[in-house]
Amino acid sequence: MIGADTVQAHSLALAYRSALGNHENPLLDVFEATISDPTFPGALFAWQRDADQAPVFYAAAQTQAQWRRLRQLLLAFVGPTLTDFSGAPSRLNAAQPHERVLAGADLAAVVRLVPTPQTATSTMRALRRLVAMVAQTPPDAEPPVETTGRLLARIRDHLNALAIDDARRLLDRCRSEHRLDALNLRFLEIEILATARDWRSIAALSGFGDLLRTRRPPAVTAALLEALYWSSFEDAAADVAAYTSGPRSSARDLVRLPAPTSMRVGAWRIYALEALASEPPNRPLAEAALAAGIDLGGLADALVVVTAVPPPPEAPPASATAQTAAALVSADLSGALSAVDQARTLLARLTEAELADLLRSDQPRRALTTIAETFGAEPSPPDWTAWLAALGRNGFTTALAVARQGAQEWRPGLGDPVEITGLAESLNEVRDEPPASDRLMEGLPHLVSWLQRDPEFPRTVGYIVYEAALDRLMLSGRAAAPMLDSAGVLARAMLAIGPQPTAYARLLSDLLEFSGQGAGLRTAYWLIELIEETVAAPAPDQRARERFWQDAVARLIPIAPQLSNLQRASLAGLAAFLGWGETIPEALAVGPVGGADATLVERLAGKIVAIYSLTESAMAQAADTLKALVPDLDVRVASDHGGSRQLRALAENADLFVVVAASATHAATDFIRARRGDRPLTYAAGRGAVSILRAVEEWALRPHSGPEIES
């Protein structure tokens, strides 16, 4: 609220409207209520010269206390990723009547929020969500100060380590704080379910049919195709007749070229089935499915026959306008950066007359607008090195959208020494100041996701890239919640590679310091898991490793009262393995059962817990620890490389199934997932026993209702 009373607020509203000429101004109408709203810390204003120009927004606060709160909200919702606002008040231009009104009011701070033409719509939506969030925040509660981009980055951070439940909690926060609209919330939910490979739940989403008809990101399209395949052919043969009578009516509109880059087995089999079901058979789809290198089962032989038929004569080339229109529509539908750049190249070759003719058609005009809003007006970076170099440009407001798509689309792997060195140097050279630092923080989890897509991850030659990315993650943790999961992924990779002794000692020291940026039980598990990783990995410097163990235990002692018995037992098991069990302080010893520990025992008593991993020693250690704490718990383990009768029985009968994703085959994981139905399944992020125990404890200690997908 501006002013000490409603009269003063009303006077300012009238003066501002008069400065705009008192004409119809729907933008101003949206925010005028904030001027007199007692719950809003200040007020929002809008100005637009005409309908063809991007609007400009203003935020004002009358007191320094209001400004401190408003500034945090603005940075969170419309900071450097959407507008030119980086935290400082603006100098107003008295020659502009509406700015003269704001400059003449008794205000502590006024800021001008200038979006680009591509981000104007997103800025309007973000400000609307900001107003709605403040209206629903209890008066005694502090509003969130974390940017929406940062929240989305943290979701990706959790998904990198298959921390599905942590990602879902942040999704719920985005929903309750109106950070995203309903459609983007649903897209994010699908991304989380797809990471968990829970195709059944995707197919069961309310409004699933509507998702097939709306514009959506390529990764969502790939997930919908995967869900359609597995929900239709989970236990049945995937032949053309079954496809035609089954999911084809839903799937055929999703099947387009170029195909989404994140497609898996089920989605490519849909492409193969559509190629064979078409009349005549679709040769381009058949060629794409065969070139994907995916197991297509018995469909591959039929596709080879289709591709052996000579292609029909090429049609006469379309006009430049028609080619560009088709490229724009295709780029809009696919969302691929390569398709977007191809469409822009064709667009740049058009004459003014051809461009005018193109823009008279609704579909290509809408596609061009959507592409510009999502990916900006300039050519997209072709790789991570170019993306990092562009972060400091004020106009690169689509950095997060490009990073999300680039992580799926850019070629995975670090096979070229020049590429490796260039990427590491580019990471180190990003300036630690807005907007580059903000954009880097939001993009880093997507970079880690891309690194994990490398079939040879972790590569020995990629160590300097992992190190540079981890350094930047550690720096980002000083300004906001640390991204522990992505840091853990990189740390495990570096430990597995085995750095030089001096680099090894520095890594352990840095990880210990980084663990102090978080607090609570989750950080404790992260630190205990790191101890376990250092036990399993080579030790180039034994003294540095022992010093790390001692310092890590010392770091845990101050929060000992918060530790659960399962965490204490994990630590005791590691200590016994290392031969220094008697040196564990009494504060970290397993204590009497009570509180959360009693809940865990009660929840697990009489249950069957199944564990799947290819690391049998870790499973055995986790099973022994669990049975020591819960004597009547039945723990069963499996390490099959694919489906088997025993694995099926466990999947169908266990009360909880823990899959160690870092030590599992996709075939076995999908086999288990398909046969669990709605029964609880959780993923352990690391390979060791501690990760398994953490997954079990987190499942046991939170309330459950309905279908359960935990992590």
Give the arrangement of secondary structure elements.
Layout (H helix, E strand, L loop, with lengths): L5 H14 L6 H11 L6 E5 L8 E6 L2 H15 L18 H8 L4 E5 L6 H17 L11 H13 L3 H13 L5 H14 L3 H5 L4 H6 L4 H16 L6 H6 L2 H4 L13 H13 L5 H9 L7 H10 L11 H15 L2 H12 L3 H8 L2 H14 L8 H7 L8 H11 L7 H13 L6 H17 L10 H14 L7 H14 L3 H15 L5 H16 L5 H15 L8 H14 L17 H9 L3 E5 L3 H14 L4 E5 L6 H9 L2 E5 L5 H11 L4 E4 L4 H12 L8 E2 L1
Parallel strand pairs: 4-5, 4-6, 6-7, 7-8
Antiparallel strand pairs: 1-2, 2-3
Gyration radius from CA atoms, angstroms: 28 Å
Beta-strand content bin: 5-15%
Relative helix content: 55-70%
* Mean pLDDT over all positions: 85
The quaternary organization reads as: single chain
Structure explained in plain terms:
The chain is 58% helix and 5% strand. The chain is mainly alpha-helical and 711 residues long. The strands form 2 sheets. It has a 5-stranded parallel β-sheet, with helices on both faces. Helix 22 (399-409) packs parallel to helix 24 (436-452), helix 23 (417-429) packs parallel to helix 25 (463-476) and helix 30 packs antiparallel against helix 35. The longest helix is centred in the N-terminal third of the chain and has 17 residues, at 120-136.
